Predict the 3D structure of the following.
Amino acid sequence: MASTPGTPGTRGTPGTSGTSGTPGTLAPWHSLLAALFLEIAVFSLVAPNFATLGNFFEVTRLSVELGLLAIALTPVIITGGIDLSVGSIM
């Protein structure tokens, strides 16, 4: 007998994160975190100034401008208030 979509434990059940839930399996974002920590470790070993407080504040300072632009332009793009074709006539 085939399971119905609402049966707990089946693939595609609403409300599940896509993992089987069995012990020993990792959620998809665990591999992303592992890759991030591996990248931080490699850059810390290769560049001695990477894992410093000064570099952390410099990266944060530089990313604030991009973050503010992204936050400001998101509603404009969603509402259709921006015309991307304007750049072609310049």
About this structure: The helical segments are 28-46, 53-78. Residues 19 and 27 are 6 Å apart (CA to CA).
